[in-house]
Amino acid sequence: MMNGRIEEKKLLKLPMNIIWFKRDLRIEDHEPLFAACAAGKILPLYIIEPELWQQPDSSRRHWHFIHDSLQDLDQSLRHCGAKLIIRTGSVLAVLQDFYEKLGLFILWSHEETGNLWTFRRDISVRKWCRDKGISWHEFSSNGVVRCLKNRDEWAKLRNERMKKGMIPLPSLIHCVNHITSEPIPPKDDHLFGKSIEGLTQRGGRSEGIKTLHSFLEERSKKYILTLSKPGVSARHCSRLSAHIAYGALSVREIEKATKEKFKSYDGIEDQEAKYFRSNLSAFLSRLAWRCHFVQKLEQQPEIEINCMHSAFEGMREPYFREDYFEAWKNGRTGYPLVDACMRSLIQNGWINFRMRAMLVSFASYHLWLDWRQTAPYMAGLFTDYEPGIHYSQFQMQSGVTGINALRIYNPIKQSLEQDPEGKFILRYVPELKNVPLSFIHEPWKLHSSSSDYSLPIVDHKLALQKVREHIAQRHQTDGFREKAHAVYKKLSSRQTSRHSSSKILKALTTDKRQLTLSF
Question: Which of 223, 235, 444, 488 has its CA at a distance of 20 to 30 angstroms from the CA of residue 186?
């Protein structure tokens, strides 16, 4: 008993430890939580920031998923004798309030690679901590490396992190008990923007664990086969992206679980084991690919608002058409697969990667819409919105990086290949229910039809002729190759090691076949 009192007195003398949860809504494999618990009494904190929810890339769909995850997180903490404290307001105001009530404390968190608003907010928090004499300990998150000196080092550092053991749960948690929490705002609170149409994937760690288990045990068997098929990919893709984006699961634990499952097939030579090994290997490569793209935003947060290659600034902005934007946003372009994909995304908050890329490609090339207009809109639709992937991919699919081959998706070709029987199209574009299958991909070719489906808002071939002209002009500007080389050196993957960067850049900037594109 005496030892217990001595320990309690020691804890009272130690500074309070506030754990600031952001996009890491779990207690497993959570280094800030583990380290803070070892330092003394803790106060687990989640701050709902009204200004963040006013940003154009935020939506109530994100809040629905976060709401579930916060409830799960609070329950997990309570099982350990702690509780989650909720506050609404600016981070600086909340921290100042705790500073006035508790005195000096230590702040613990994961590094966050979020949108530009969160990047600037963290700069202000860092300054506030310095002014108040507050120690802020930030820990690396997933495979993203802060203050990376050379992109050549990234893959090695990322893989070393993934090989490390999982951070264990603290053996003992001493929690502040006299601080009360605000209630978690309801899902329909107006703070989080407009009401959403359709569904939102359920959030929370318990749901994430179920999703991971079902993918590894059964759904991954057809992962590669159905990856690009809009009608069936929702079942056989991992569906873990939202759980990773909000940190209900860590990339490391998913990678370790996947490798363990892969290893379980060692020595088994039947066809099913072969399928699983092949699919799980592809999934592992995509986990690494995910970290690679988030790393781009970590190194250059401004890619949310600036083209990676400055030669492409001002290329699309003067030609913006609101009617095109509205047609694209609402799935009313006259191209069946494009419209079906957009309507599906609005309804479900998710669609596979190829169809996401096609939607961006169509907006950026066929409609010549600037990616800074289209990116925030789609961010709000995605339950699994991850800023690092989102803006990197938008720039790549819009052809403004200067280092990636242009990828313009032919919506008719994609329709024929990915939905040959038109089942997905008819599910989301019922206006075509009376159109014969032979015309389902190009209904405008049907001379007489009872369909009230609109005609294409742009001509495919004419639109691409203008694209070639605009892109070619930008590639011919002074200093284009030198600037492209700088982008490559700072942000590019190093997986193409057998080719020199100069050869790659020469191919991208001089090979005219890049402007004829792949269909």
Answer: 235
